Amino acid sequence: MEFVGITVLFFDEKVNSVIHGFTPVGHANHYMPSLKAGSIVKVDRFEVSRCSSMYKITDHPFVIRFISLTIIDEVITGAPEINLQSR
């Protein structure tokens, strides 16, 4: 198998939806240290586009793509609690 990038899921607590996020292999090494399993992050400066049905992993019509200007900061205080249990 070939490494093609990093897939993340964004939970929007305000509208109770999940958005697919992706960073291609060319940017993956830059963002990998900022993306830890179970962490809550703030993401600024990203690209939004329609999600191709071929790669669709959520019901949301859009995908968030990290670009060279994307900034990822872990939220340490004031972060919402996410219930990881399935409903």
UniProtKB/TrEMBL annotation:
It comes from the Eukaryota. This is DUF223 domain-containing protein.
